[in-house]
Specification:
The chain is of the alpha/beta class. The protein has three domains: 170 residues, MoaB/Mog-like domain (Molybdenum Cofactor Biosythetic Enzyme, Chain A), CATH 3.40.980.10; 78 residues, Alpha-Beta Plaits; 154 residues, Maf protein (Alpha-Beta Complex). The chain is 41% helix and 25% strand. Strands 2-1-3-8-7-6 form a six-stranded mixed sheet, with helices on both faces. 38% of the residues are buried.
């Protein structure tokens, strides 16, 4: 079977200067992978004609499918459409179904007049296949050149995703014979990447060539992903599952979950399983743990609320942390977080609570309590546990590490005290 793979080209100066983070490519790569199309390269270019042209030229030598996002708007810096017209030797024409669609959006929905720049959204190269964009005014386009296929999509995420799901992903299997790609992912905590690699070396060394193992460390957790590609799906799944069981056994007590889900999803599922609720009392994380827990759909079933006690006055007046603790031991202390967790549990009437207090940096550290010092308390109706952490990164990463480790700590308490 011929190897079919894709390249994603993202266009826009805003991507290169860091003004906008490219989340489109990651999402596109995940969706392409599901239909058996691996992405080998991701290329970002600015709004320069020569740069875009060269990128398309170069990627055409390597990939069978080239996906281009961005540069399809109505302003002068959006040059993708005229460039593609010249690249594929076409001429610009008005696509009347698109013109009707754009007119309807502006005159009937937005109640605004159609100006010339909006009318130009309906102009397309005459040698493209137009992909209707129900979520916006810029149509998608498909071109063919030899055995290569090119898709040009808007850079607006909701428009790009709609076109991918409704047009591009269904089209690709009709154009190419693809292989099956299967993944198995597990999540570990409490062990570093290098130690984990040593622990599972015997499994990794015995993997066949068509099954690859990837290490994905992030904020104190390590994901392990097995990826297999083949032509017979049932056989592939059977073989992959066998090696995945061996991997889980080798990971042993460090295994958190054998699914590709986040730590907040792990905790959410565990709380639902136990019909339990949780609340948070956050100082140094400023509500970030609450944000993670409520990012899950259905989190209202188990998450009740948060007290962001950033100032010591709130710790004292609402969470009842005694003045003598704040004065003599400090807000970043075991005694402070124990009281925060205990009072939060009582106020919110939940089964579990999380309390955190720390020094995130870049300032505020002392010799006794340097930047990255964090106390975490996890409470239930019958137990309360505390843990001291020492992180060593910048403010943003210290906050994320605190939140993730607090959730890992909570999971341990739930498992031990369901």
């Amino acid at each position: 079977m011929e190897n079919i793979f894709a390249t994603i080209i993202t266009i826009g100066d805003e991507l290169l200067i860091g003004q906008v983070i490219d989340t489109n490519s990651a999402w596109m790569a995940q969706e392409l992978n599901k239909i058996g199309i691996p992405v080998r390269r991701r290329v970002a270019v600015g709004d320069q004609w020569d740069a875009i042209w060269s990128a398309i030229d170069e990627e055409s030598q390597k990939a069978s499918i080239i996906l281009i996002t961005g540069g399809l708007g109505p302003t002068a810096d959006d040059i993708t459409k005229p460039l593609l017209c010249k690249y594929f030797g076409g001429k610009m024409i008005i696509h009347h179904p698109t013109l009707e669609h754009v007119t309807h959006i502006f005159e009937s929905i937005l109640k605004r007049p159609m100006i010339e720049s909006n009318r130009k959204q309906a102009e397309v190269p005459d040698n493209c296949i137009v992909l209707k964009n129900e979520r916006g005014t810029a149509p998608g386009m498909m071109f063919k050149k030899g055995e290569k296929v090119y898709f040009s999509l808007p850079g607006v995420p909701q428009e790009m995703k709609w076109l991918m799901q409704q047009e591009v992903l269904p089209l690709i299997p009709t154009l190419f014979k693809t292989s099956f790609i299967e993944h198995r992912t597990l999540l570990t905590a409490g062990i570093g990447e290098s130690f984990l690699a040593e622990r599972i070396a015997h499994v990794e060394n015995n993997l066949p060539k068509h099954i690859k193992l990837a290490y994905l460390p992030n904020y104190g957790l390590v994901r392990l992903r097995l990826t297999a590609a083949g032509s017979i799906k049932n056989d592939l799944i059977k073989e992959l599952d066998k090696h995945f069981e061996q991997l889980k056994n080798a990971v042993g007590p460090y295994l958190i979950v054998d699914e590709d889900i986040s730590m907040e999803q792990v905790v959410g599922k565990l709380l639902i399983k136990n019909q339990a609720t949780v609340s948070t009392a956050e100082s140094c994380t400023g509500g970030y743990i609450a944000h993670l827990l409520t990012s899950n759909a259905g989190s209202s079933a188990y998450y009740k609320g948060s007290i962001v006690s950033y100032d010591n006055e709130i710790k004292h007046t609402i969470l009842k942390v005694p003045e003598e603790i704040l004065v003599h031991q400090g807000a970043v202390s075991e005694a402070a977080v124990k009281q925060m967790a205990k009072e939060c549990l009582q106020l919110m009437q939940t089964d579990y609570s999380i309390a955190v207090s720390g020094i995130m940096g870049p300032d505020g550290g002392t010799e006794e309590k340097p930047v990255g010092t964090v106390w975490v308390a996890i409470a239930s109706k019958t137990d309360i546990k505390t843990k001291l952490y020492h992180f060593r990164y910048d403010r943003e990463r210290n906050i994320a590490l605190t939140a993730t480790n607090a959730l890992v700590f909570l999971r341990m308490l739930i498992v031990d005290n369901p």
